[in-house]
Design brief:
By secondary structure, this protein is an alpha/beta fold. The protein has helices at 5-16, 31-45, 56-60, 63-76, 93-106, 120-127, 146-149, 161-172, 187-196, 214-221, 235-238, 243-261, 273-285, 315-329, 344-355, 396-407, 425-431, 442-451, 457-468, and strands at 20-24, 51-54, 84-89, 111-114, 133-139, 178-182, 202-204, 229-233, 289-295, 301-306, 336-339, 359-362, 375-376, 384-392, 411-420, 435-441. The strands form three sheets. Strands 2-1-8-7-6-5-4-3 form an eight-stranded parallel β-sheet, sandwiched between helices. A six-stranded mixed β-sheet has the order 13-12-11-14-15-16, sandwiched between helices.
Length: 472
């Protein structure tokens, strides 16, 4: 297996059609029992496994013979199947280097779980070689995880520690071999981490015995390509009457859910549920959506406030937003992206970079000097522009911008927004001859936030009542 560790993991996922990691936590009282138990599990489940994850503690507890059993178990894994050593190491300097040699050279594992509590130098020896992978503890599945992981960090308002770990992991991933451990027991946190680390692989414990829900975890954490998650199941397979059959059942369930995640959404037909969950989490973590009591420009008091201008200060959230737009725009024909000032200008720029497509924008006021341009950027008369805006409310501002674009000789057929507030913009624009496309509706986002537990039921019901009564 060539390339970085996660290249290898992706290759195995493609070959096996599986995201299932079989945990090896032997409960035998002797090294021979532990070795035999793990070998039986490997033989029964290898066909359905993306990876195997032996837990070092159960072998260490058996003394020198147990460590030999660990060597033998790792050697028993068929070629081509990655081995993740669950050791949760976390030390510095020579000690960290010794742990790295033990994991990768002595025992022959391909990846290891690590604690980031001591800082980036803890990880350095483990990720110096791109062929070796590291899964960094981020939001774990144990009951006491929130004692520290959800503490708000001073200097990072409203941002818990686990989110900072995710952000740092993106920076540490220079060689393509850093992932995160994110438990299935907190789907809302999983969605937030996916928004902050859209490209990383996550090792996801907590399914089954710990109460994690598989569909919720996949919806919250899968990348748009249907990859990015290593779903670990240990006791649920080891204690099954037929471990092979149980591994196959879980593998097949994951397959079905992955397939569904790439199918069109019934509400926002151009978006997958996975991308919608990532988007919803990004909007919350960046503070673009707030709940409470807010007086709108119209004087109406609203239980929700949308401020997408904040995206410019949150590059990871902006990147997630750009990818959501790009997924929708990939089905449209256009020559130029036309961002509407001011909120949509950075969004259109981010989308342009994501898609490698040129961006233009209509000025609010024409220049009375120089070129006296009404539309800025490079374009030719007759080209088709797709209008990019942040929100759709009534549609009036869209028509004003379209007039400037068409006066410059451009053709406009489609308008794409991030959020449709469902206040009548679609029918009004359709009557004028234009098609409105929304990455998500406000109702759809509310359903997503409520389903993942990101917004409490009372707040969600207040917003739904507000929308139902037309007070947008």
């Amino acid at each position: 297996m060539a390339g970085s560790f996660f290249d290898r993991l992706a290759a195995r996922a493609a070959a096996s059609g599986s995201l299932l990691c079989v945990g090896l936590d032997p409960r035998g009282t002797t090294a021979d029992e532990a070795r035999a138990e793990c070998r039986r599990l490997i033989a029964a489940t290898a066909e359905y496994a993306l990876a195997f994850k032996p837990n070092s503690a159960f072998f260490e507890a058996l003394g020198p013979a147990g460590m030999q059993a660990l060597l033998d178990v790792i050697a028993s894994v068929p070629d081509g199947i990655p081995v993740i050593l669950d050791a949760k190491r976390g030390d510095i300097a020579d000690t960290a280097e010794a742990y790295a040699r033990a994991a990768f050279q002595t025992f022959g594992a391909h990846a290891i779980t690590l604690s980031p509590y001591l800082g980036s130098d803890t990880l350095a020896p483990f990720i110096a070689n791109p062929a070796n992978g590291a899964f960094v503890l981020c939001k774990t599945s144990n009951p006491g995880a929130d004692e520290f992981q959800k503490l708000v960090v001073q200097g990072a308002p409203d941002q818990p520690l686990f989110e900072l770990v995710a952000q740092h992991a993106v920076e540490w991933n220079r060689l393509g071999n850093v992932g995160l451990v994110v438990g299935a027991t907190d789907p809302a946190a999983l969605a937030r981490v996916r928004a902050l680390a859209p490209d990383l692989w996550f090792l996801v414990p907590g399914i089954g015995t710990q109460g994690g829900d598989l569909p919720a975890a996949l919806a919250a954490g899968l990348r748009p390509d249907g990859l990015g998650l290593v779903i670990n199941v240990s006791r649920g397979i080891a204690r099954a009457a037929d471990p092979g059959a149980e591994a196959r059942r879980i593998r097949d369930e994951i397959r079905q859910l992955r397939s569904a995640s790439r199918a069109p959404s019934p509400v926002a037909k151009d978006q997958s549920p996975t991308l919608l969950h990532s988007l919803a989490a990004a909007l919350l973590s960046s503070g673009c959506v707030k709940f409470g009591q807010f007086t709108l420009k119209s004087g109406v008091v609203s239980p929700i406030y949308l401020d997408l201008r904040r995206l410019v200060s949150f590059p990871d959230a902006l990147r997630t937003v750009a990818r959501a737009y790009a997924a929708l725009l990939s089905g449209l024909e256009f020559d130029r992206l036309a961002g509407i000032p001011y909120a949509a200008l950075p969004i259109a720029t981010a989308v342009g970079l994501e898609m490698s497509r040129p961006v233009i924008y209509p000025r609010r006021e024409a220049k009375d000097y120089g070129t006296r341009a009404v539309v800025e950027g490079d374009y030719q008369a007759g080209q088709r522009a797709v209008v990019i805006d942040d929100l759709a409310t009534t549609g009036d501002t869209k028509l004003e911008s379209i007039e400037k674009l068409t006066a410059a000789g451009l053709t406009v057929r489609d308008i794409v927004v991030l959020i449709d507030r469902e206040q009548g913009a679609g029918p009004m624009l359709a009557a004028a001859g234009y098609r409105l496309h929304a990455v998500a509706t406000l109702s759809q986002l509310m359903d997503t936030w409520q389903a993942t537990g990101a917004v409490d039921t009372a707040a969600a019901e207040r917003v739904k009542d507000f929308l139902a009564n037309g007070r947008r």
